[in-house]
Amino acid sequence: MNETLLEAADRALVDGVLARQLRPLAKTITLIESQREDHQMRAQGVLEALLPHSGGAMRVGISGVPGVGKSTFIEALGLYLIEQGLRVAVLAVDPSSSLSGGSILGDKTRMEGLSQCPQAFIRPSPSAGSLGGVAEKTRETLLVCEAAGFDVIIVETVGVGQSETAVANMTDIFCLLQLPNAGDDLQGIKKGIMELADLVVVNKADIDPAATTRAQAQLKTALHMLRPASPNWSPPVLTLSALKKAGIEDFWRTVCDYRTTMTRSGEFEGRRRHQALAWMWELIDAGLRQRFRRHPRVRAELAAISTAVELGESTPAVAAQRLLQHLN
Amino acid sequence: MNETLLEAADRALVDGVLARQLRPLAKTITLIESQREDHQMRAQGVLEALLPHSGGAMRVGISGVPGVGKSTFIEALGLYLIEQGLRVAVLAVDPSSSLSGGSILGDKTRMEGLSQCPQAFIRPSPSAGSLGGVAEKTRETLLVCEAAGFDVIIVETVGVGQSETAVANMTDIFCLLQLPNAGDDLQGIKKGIMELADLVVVNKADIDPAATTRAQAQLKTALHMLRPASPNWSPPVLTLSALKKAGIEDFWRTVCDYRTTMTRSGEFEGRRRHQALAWMWELIDAGLRQRFRRHPRVRAELAAISTAVELGESTPAVAAQRLLQHLN
Lengths: 328, 328
Prior knowledge:
Single alpha-helices involved in coiled-coils or other helix-helix interfaces, Rossmann fold, 7-stranded parallel sheet, 7 strands, GTPase activity (chains A, B), GTP binding (chains A, B)
């Protein structure tokens, strides 16, 4: 889309975002999150105009079960980064927020110090319903925040459902927060989440140093048994206390080391390219499925054919073929 | 498809399979594996006729890295099951076999004792190319073997690529074989594979009993840290020596315990229904993508648009929309 085709109102949004003004930024995100079709078209135009100015931030994903101290950690990290002269945006992916009325980041008082900083921008999870919808809008918001000159974008997610995969797929480094009560209680690590982690952090290390050391050792063992995603990076296990602001500097140094290592090997750019292409294919697949499901004959037959497959009365191949031929 | 519509030759295949004759069984599988379109149509007709007679076997997936002793284990297990009066089929999923000329099960001499038993049927991996193609043909072969009255169907895969997921998605229980040299060498456990395991086996326990005990403890710890797939089953870690035929009976008792537990909770049937439906959707998605990629305007633009997305010159959403609108 050509930038010159933008309406004056949208042109003003683009200029405002690029001028790092918070009101146009918030308005642009609202446009992105809108369900209205005309808003969505306008949002894509604005996004295309902003795209050449995006890509400059470090994208940091943060996950962990409720109670692990995510907001305290993000507040401490955010304030530390601002002290270093950086601007920080905090976004969230929480597909449950439309049901629960906003379980994470809905309440800015959770990060009181950070939310009062002019160098910080905090945006709760969009309440678009499905994970796909929520993740897509957060990914687009991330690009807008980059165009607005934020140096670090933190994307938070709660350790429930498939949202961790979505966040790992839109960030440069995925960090998993853990509690020090290892062993049985570590069952909070869900299937496949440990493998996503580029960095594991044991929070609340001040409460029980002995338990923290045990948890760190156990997590190291578990990570050791998984083949790392990159030949150049073995996910480390750090310990810190977000409440006492101890270990935050060490955390950030590790993130910077990661960035240096991955940039040097070409994996940093490679991951971003791969993420963008995978995202495009995700949207294509979703679009193809949506068209398929809307087809009148598919709609008429899908339920009965699905039941026949479940009951072993039809093979999946014959069922798929029967439904697909309606598209001819 | 109506059975009465089958040609005489295909009717003879169906009758032969149901009469548990090995030649019609092998011919049917060859028909399924054929790339010819007319063969594929015939194969679907034969499969539909056999489908009501399938579902009776215990479907056991076996995976592990090269050198872990998969064929020795499958041979020992197969011979044990035959001693118990059961009939055993051994299939394989190996997407690399078309390249390597058949890396697993290609050579029946690997399971010399078992291959000479009339109660056993061993079939190498189809060499259809892509994992999707290989897995689909193996899944269909599995149904044919069930219609031929086999009591246990073992599906072997090599611990490389995504083939473990494919095998876990077509079997009732997925077993992961491990070597006793734990610790550093356990890096052979790939991302996400540990989570697929319903049962872990440390093979070659006779070589180094101390190392075996350590490996068992470490694997238990690692499994313990992952939330199990079923609330009713925590994947156990067994030790055995396939070479000495020690522990095979214990292995099979555990498989039977699993079946009893999962049947009682309804998860056994639930997993099969879910697998069948997921398989149908996999084929639908593949079919939709194939049609999409074949569309002349998509073919003309896909490469350039993909590059623009990778380079951050176009958003994935705009790119997907642009390509999808060609279907209108």
